[in-house]
Specification:
Layout: E1 3-8, E2 25-28, H1 35-41, E3 49-54, E4 57-59, E5 70-75, E6 92-94, H2 99-107, E7 112-113, H3 120-130, E8 133-136, H4 139-142, E9 150-152, H5 158-168, E10 189-192, H6 194-197, H7 203-208, E11 212-215, E12 221-222, H8 226-240
Parallel strand pairs: 1-5, 6-7, 6-8, 8-9
Antiparallel strand pairs: 1-2, 3-4, 3-5, 10-11, 11-12
């Protein structure tokens, strides 16, 4: 049976079986196999891979692995460049397990779709057709062939997830809480006069706050409560650590 030798680097090793981590290993195969198929069969989703070097030459995911090939697989070591996008910020779509992360991202103006009732195939389609980065903790979802931009969220704590995404996509110095989106529907917010929404406010809210924002899509109201202060403190601390 033909076999190739594979070596995965850096955080890609977390997707591998323990005995394959941080070492070169023999990888037998049958028939014609693409390097993408073999990488994903080993457990690594292809959107996490940045470069594949076979016998000293960079190859595409479609490369057909040959007997005796020496395959080195590298992750993305640098944040992607979104400078050519109209608003300089990438757009995202997230799976159902990342609801709190989505809320934090929308609070700083990041466009994130969160279709709670969509199946994996629909999330993959949205990512591919709309050019959105797919955020998920489901490795299998990232392995779908049509997904070209994706990130496996490693952290489980929502605040840690938020920091991970901001740093991974180099967003920390581009976001602004003043451009927040609606946490419920992802719509844009616009400031409204307090007098215009007075009849929609609870007595305690009416007495405590003077500035309000309304979603242009679903018309939900927002104000800068304790959650906003906590967000500002979190971002300040994260920036100070860089």
């Amino acid at each position: 049976m033909p076999q190739a030798t594979f070596r995965f680097y850096a955080h890609l090793n977390r997707f591998l079986a323990p005995h394959r981590r941080q070492v070169a290993f023999d990888y037998p195969f049958e028939g014609v196999r693409s390097v993408k198929d073999m990488i994903e069969a080993a457990g690594v989703p292809h959107p996490e891979v940045h470069r594949i070097v076979v016998n000293g030459e960079t190859v595409p995911l479609t490369y057909r692995v040959g007997d005796g090939d020496q395959v080195h697989v590298y992750p993305v070591f640098q944040s992607p460049d979104f400078s050519e996008l109209p608003d300089r910020l990438p757009r995202f779509v997230a799976d159902v397990h990342l609801g709190r992360l989505v809320a934090y991202m929308r609070m700083v103006g990041i466009d994130v779709l969160y279709p709670e009732d969509y199946r994996d195939q629909e999330l993959a389609r949205i990512s591919a057709e709309e050019g959105r980065v797919l955020l998920t903790r489901d490795v299998g979802l990232l392995k779908r062939g049509i997904v070209t931009q994706g990130h496996y969220v490693r952290a489980t704590n929502p605040w840690e997830q938020f920091a991970e995404v901001l740093l991974r996509f180099n967003l920390l110095n581009q976001i602004d809480t003043a451009t927040a989106r609606c946490g419920a529907c992802n719509g844009m917010l616009q400031q409204v006069d307090k007098a215009a929404v007075m009849d929609r406010l609870l007595p305690r809210t009416r007495a405590s706050y003077d500035e309000f924002w309304e979603c242009t899509d679903c018309h939900k109201l927002y104000w800068k409560g304790p959650h906003h202060q906590r967000l500002e403190e979190f971002l300040a601390a994260l920036r100070s650590d860089l």
